[in-house]
Amino acid sequence: MMIPCPHCGDRDVSEFRYGGDATKQRPKHGTGDLRTWHDHVFVFENPKGPHTEYWQHVLGCRRWFKLARNTATNEIGGVVS
């Protein structure tokens, strides 16, 4: 699978690290509620179909970006701003 890094161009998926669901709202900084943080980190959906995800180009520019990808077909929809 080829991933279009917005800074380096198209690269093989082996150069990237998956960073999780980009649609999930992160808890507010300083929140002391451990259940909220537990659920944010460990409880997640496993969607089938179009989805927005975080990816990091670890073997390239090392930058994070959002990518639209169909999880059923691995079809890349492109970088999401």
Please give a quick description of this structure.
The chain is mainly beta and 81 residues long. It contains one helix and six strands.
Task: Give an account of the 3D structure.
The chain has 81 residues and is mainly beta. It has one domain (2-80): Folate-binding fold, CATH 3.30.2270. It is 11% helix and 40% strand. The protein contains one helix and six strands. The protein has one helix at residues 34-42, and strands at residues 2-5, 9-12, 17-21, 50-56, 64-70, 76-80. The strands form two sheets. A four-stranded antiparallel β-sheet has the order 3-4-5-6, with no helix packed on it. A hairpin with a 7-residue loop joins strand 4 (50-56) and strand 5.
Short key terms for the protein model shown above:
81 residues, single chain, two-stranded antiparallel sheet, mainly beta, 1 helix, four-stranded antiparallel sheet, Folate-binding fold, globular
